[in-house]
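Suppose a colleague, Dr. K., hands you the sequence of a protein chain of 326 amino acids and asks what its three-dimensional shape might be. Before reaching for any lab equipment, you can write down a predicted structure in token form. Begin with the sequence itself:
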Amino acid sequence: MHAMPMLSAHSLFETSDLDHARQEVGQIFCSHKLQPGNELSGGTVRFNHAPIRALAVSWADYGRDVRIDPVQFENFYLLQIVRDGSARIVSNSNEIELRSGQACLINPNDDLSMEWSQHCRKLIVRIDRPSLERFAEQWFGCYLPGRLDFENNVSWDRPEMAAARGIVDLIVQDFENGAGVLGHSEAQRHFEDSFFAALLISRRHSFSDMVEKHSPAVPRAVKRAEEYIAAHAREEISVSDLVEASEVSTRTLFESFRRFRGMTPMQYVRRYRLDRVRETLERPGCSESVTEVAMRWKFEQLGRFASQYAAVFGEKPSNTLRRSRN
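The predicted structure, expressed as tokens, is then:
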């Protein structure tokens, strides 16, 4: 017995043309190669899609054996849950065989290749990378010093995944039943934050060990330096300023920031300023230009600023501003 389609009221397209399917799917995920695994097999490709804030849920059925080779994507994670049939996933060097009820989580920048069986049907959750990383920083109480990567294998039916599984089920049910809960921004935020928290708690990731080691209290020297940065971020700040404010030696300050913040003091200054720029650009109807905001927060080399901003938030500052004005 095949799994019933999900999100039927949110049909994105139906087609028997694989090239058409590739173009449509590419618009919501990324560019990719899509090839039939068996020239004799064929059927209707069905794709349903419903976005909410930093999450989007999709139901996908290619109706035939296919091979999918995406380009590296940078700005999202993909949680793929097989509801029927089977799939073979190769993420970097990790080969994963998925059957009905099993799942995997693909990280941004992974080398990815997928083979779907003719009867494979998946529920896919697209997770915005910058949003998850910002939540993780708030959750951990420190800036992330590198990429947030999860283990690919997900035991979707295991008890530790019950919270994440329940949230995804509730999202799908609300869309299917037309209950309208997800039409409210506060409800969307609640579902999103709950899902992010469930992932960070239940899945091993690249900062699991760091977070476990951060249970000791943050030294007062770090807090004094952070308070100084918050008060003087629009001014020139030097290492000597932070050493004086923290009342410890340069070596102690750097070691404390490395251990408890995962970065140097000046990297923390830059990240604090980048966050303030983004907060301003995200304000509805922001009337300032990117240059004006960047200069106010002491980013004087605009090309470097734009690169740093994109590396942290996954988009150009001009895109953030454009979205806030729409």
